[in-house]
Design goal:
The two termini are 20 Å apart. The chain is mainly alpha-helical. The protein has 4 helices and no strands. The chain folds into 2 domains: 3-50, no CATH class; 62-93, no CATH class. It has helices at 3-13, 38-50, 62-73, 78-81. One of its GO terms (cellular component) is mitochondrion. GO terms for molecular function: L-aspartate:2-oxoglutarate aminotransferase activity; pyridoxal phosphate binding. This is Aminotransferase class I/classII large domain-containing protein.
Length: 99
Amino acid sequence: PDPILGLNQAYNADSFPKKVNLGVGAYRDNDGKPYVLKCIRAAEAKIAGDMDMEYADIAGVSGFNICAQKLLFGAKSTAISDGRIVTAQTISGTGSLRV
């Protein structure tokens, strides 16, 4: 079984009235509906204004992949400069948990 989804089941079984479910990647209100923070809404609006709405390449957004490589391996990595690192942007959640 998926450990993150197991946390959601444990949350649902817990009777503590002030519990907060942080296991599934989304805040929820008292009715169990997704709650998006105001700062997130503001960031979304700022980003959406600059988006061109094009599909990403098959391997994902190139600029994101390059930045991820530098973050993980270091900006001066010889593995990057030698072309020995391959990066692909994937879907979120458990679908992207592969190395």
